[in-house]
Design brief:
The chain has 105 residues and is an alpha+beta fold.
């Protein structure tokens, strides 16, 4: 059984791959095919991914992806920052009276 990635490259057990949806990367533990498509199980998450959303990457790119935060990690960091800002602003009174325009006529 031949399983292809998003670019048409063959995926084999042990290959380094990256999930294009979130940027997660890992080594392929297993591969399978069923009525819904072809799948590869990654070591990093122990989850099955549709092969059409994976891309085989060489060792250098794989190491780079492992060092970079994924999109999910970045989103989580951003949400935490927003939460901290909101918590710091709650209950603060701000005087904006000097910023209002006069209703001239």
């Amino acid at each position: 059984m031949e399983i292809l990635d998003a670019r048409g490259k063959t995926i084999l057990k042990g290959d380094n791959v990256r999930y294009t949806g979130t940027g997660s990367s890992g080594k392929v533990l297993d591969i399978k095919s069923d009525d819904t498509g072809t799948w590869a199980k990654l070591d990093a998450t122990e989850m099955w991914y549709k092969s059409r959303y994976l891309e085989v990457v060489d060792e250098a790119k794989y190491k780079k992806f492992k060092e970079e935060p994924s999109k999910a990690d970045e989103k989580e960091k951003t949400l935490k920052k927003i939460k901290r800002v909101k918590e710091n602003k709650i209950g603060e009174d701000v005087d904006i009276s000097s910023e209002m325009c006069g209703g001239g006529g």
